[in-house]
């Protein structure tokens, strides 16, 4: 799609969002310029959830290939949620990756994020620590999610979520499920590569996801998840990819 066509589509989508006051969703250019490839959006916390009454800011980057590739979104507002990184705001949502379609829009993506706040998926986590808490101590999760919404998103205090009831001892099944969530998170993040192998590059200052992408681009053997020493040529190719060299 030509740049002008993409810009027209984005402008129309932003106008549609502005014209739908009932959704209480907003989106506009991040800077006071005509550049519509970097947006700041806000979504209200869904009623009946620990996030109710809060306003959550989302950073939106529109790729050159839009709408054939999804917008890249992350939460600027800190959120305690299993599918949102409590550290970086990164989001685990299929409509922003594998389930994306060109018929979807910025607005529909933001509505999907609002639905995600309402319906967490702890067995497909972005943040394993939060996912374990959802499954092992749902009352504690609701309380902490609400505490963060009050502190970071301006939500009003809600007595339904403000107090934590006493924790019960985790049953063996809950412990097993918690461990499965943690293991699943690690396997999914490292895509079958040995963690130590990947972390040799992470320790150089690169993000895990970028290192895994570089491994896949270069064609590094997963070696059944076992650690091994990479050949020097592969080391150079991976480093070049990570540094963005042609």
Strand portion = 5-15%
Task: Kindly name the structural category.
Answer: alpha+beta
Q: What fold name goes in the CATH topology slot of the largest domain?
A: Ubiquitin Conjugating Enzyme
With strands numbered from the N-terminus, the spatial order across the biggest sheet is 1-2-3-4
Give the helix tally.
9
The amount of helix comes to 40-55%
Brief descriptors of the model:
about 250 residues; alpha+beta; Ubiquitin Conjugating Enzyme; about 10% strand
Brief overview:
With 246 residues, the chain is an alpha+beta fold. It has 2 domains: 3-162, Roll (Ubiquitin Conjugating Enzyme), CATH 3.10.110.10; 191-242, no CATH class.
What layout of secondary structure does this protein have?
Blueprint: H1 3-19, E1 26-29, E2 38-44, E3 55-61, E4 72-75, H2 106-118, H3 128-136, H4 138-153, H5 159-162, H6 172-190, H7 195-202, H8 208-218, H9 232-242
Plain-language structure description:
This protein is an alpha+beta fold and 246 residues long. It has two domains: 160 residues, Ubiquitin Conjugating Enzyme (Roll), CATH 3.10.110; 52 residues, no CATH class. The two termini are 24 Å apart.
């Amino acid at each position: 799609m030509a740049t002008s066509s993409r810009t027209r589509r984005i402008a129309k989508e932003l106008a549609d969002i502005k014209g739908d006051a009932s959704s209480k969703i907003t989106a506009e250019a991040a800077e006071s310029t005509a550049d519509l490839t970097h947006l700041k959006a806000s979504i209200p916390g869904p009623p009946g959830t620990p996030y109710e009454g809060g306003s959550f800011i989302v950073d939106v980057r529109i790729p050159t290939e839009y709408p054939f590739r999804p917008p890249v979104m992350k939460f600027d507002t800190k959120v305690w949620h299993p599918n949102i990184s409590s550290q970086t705001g990164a989001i685990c949502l299929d409509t922003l990756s594998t389930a994306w379609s060109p018929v979807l829009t910025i607005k529909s993506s933001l509505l999907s994020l609002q639905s995600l706040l309402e319906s967490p998926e702890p067995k497909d986590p972005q943040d394993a620590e939060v996912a374990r808490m959802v499954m092992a101590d749902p009352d504690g999760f609701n309380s902490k999610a609400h505490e963060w919404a009050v502190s970071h998103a301006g939500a009003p205090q809600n007595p339904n979520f403000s107090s934590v009831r006493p924790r019960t001892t985790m049953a063996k099944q809950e412990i097993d499920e918690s461990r499965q969530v943690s293991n699943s998170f690690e396997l999914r993040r490292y895509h079958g590569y040995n963690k130590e192998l990947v972390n040799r590059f992470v320790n150089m200052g690169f993000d895990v996801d970028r290192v895994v992408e570089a491994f896949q681009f270069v064609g590094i053997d997963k070696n059944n998840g076992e650690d091994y020493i990479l050949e020097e040529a592969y080391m150079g190719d991976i480093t070049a990819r990570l540094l963005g060299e042609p």
